[in-house]
Amino acid sequence: MRSESAGNRVRVLYSFPHKLGASRICYTAWQQVNGLAAAGADVLVCPGALSRPVPQQVRVWPTLAWGKLRIPYKLVGSMRAFALHDWRVSRRLEKLVGKIDIIHAWPVGAIRTLKAAKRLGIPTVLERPNCHTRFAYEVVQKECERLGVALPPGHEHAYKPEVLRIEEEEYSLATRVLCPSEFVRKTFVDQGFEGEQLARHFYGVDEKRFFPGESVVDKDPFTMIFVGVCAVRKGLHFALEAWLRSPASKTGKFLIAGSFVRAYEEKLRSMLSHPSVQVLGQRDDIPQLMRKSHAFVLPTIEEGFGLVCTEAMASGCVPLVSAACTEICVNMENALVHPIGDVEALTRHIKMLYEDRPLLSRLREGGLRKVPEITWTAAGARLLDVYRETIEMHVNVTDPGVLTPSL
Description:
The chain has 407 residues and is of the alpha/beta class. It has two domains: 6-204 and 376-398, Rossmann fold; 223-373, Rossmann fold (3-Layer(aba) Sandwich), CATH 3.40.50.
């Protein structure tokens, strides 16, 4: 990891319209801020609200909170809250000219901020925690129609023209779009984006929370676990079908940890009722469950990164994942990777791990060796390098005659 000297720190305004440190993307953003601070960035974070403390050196300016008073997201509505956040951050930029080098923004709360930054000559990166929104809507809708499952109103992957309009405008305004996986990058290339507009980074794993216990490789029953929101896009139906086709279902256990979309649960009822399948619901003991499982499955049809893949890897649990997941999962090196929607391939992979314990052991060890390279500290260092690249690109574009020193 490269450290920053006091006089040469990259100064970033990190704009996040949600509750920094809460669950899902809020946790991802919180870990990014921690990783950036560890890498030596000078961070001013502007969250809607702060749910967990950040490192002492990180300055915090909540946009939807004043002391103990908070504007409730549910009361004003998420979209209004995000717009207010965006307005407040954009208004502050005038006073920050010369005091920040780059802005890191998040979707659906950044149009005003990105426009103001462009006017003021400040480079920007836009986080993309998922695929291109148009692609995500289309592929999920297609699979829902194939299954005969209707997404509930307001579901995050139900088609929302206003959200799509906002996000596509944000894509066009940002200096670069941050892609945490090659799969995400490709969905933008397919929509006409060019190489330099897309920056590759990755999300990390908390090695202090996710770590291996005593090896379960030679222990029975063989246990496979799914962790996440039980919705069509995550491909749990593929996992259930493959599990029940495999010999593992005769003596093993398939654990499902997560909450269900109701219509999806009803569709899968007959498979979920199999004696080898245990529906655990929402759980707080995921690291312990992973440490006690042989394999982790995520046959998702579209994905941003899949934090649970590397969390499983760090726990000594071998990932069985689709090609939509992070390329940190390498087939036959630290994971088994199948083509999206290929139930036959996934069935073979489950059978392989069930019957070939030496293979299971090799893949487990391969994953554990990878962990030091994919911590949140390492992810923060990579993100800081992306900032440097973007700042240099911006200077060269705005003033091609300037020779930019290495940041």
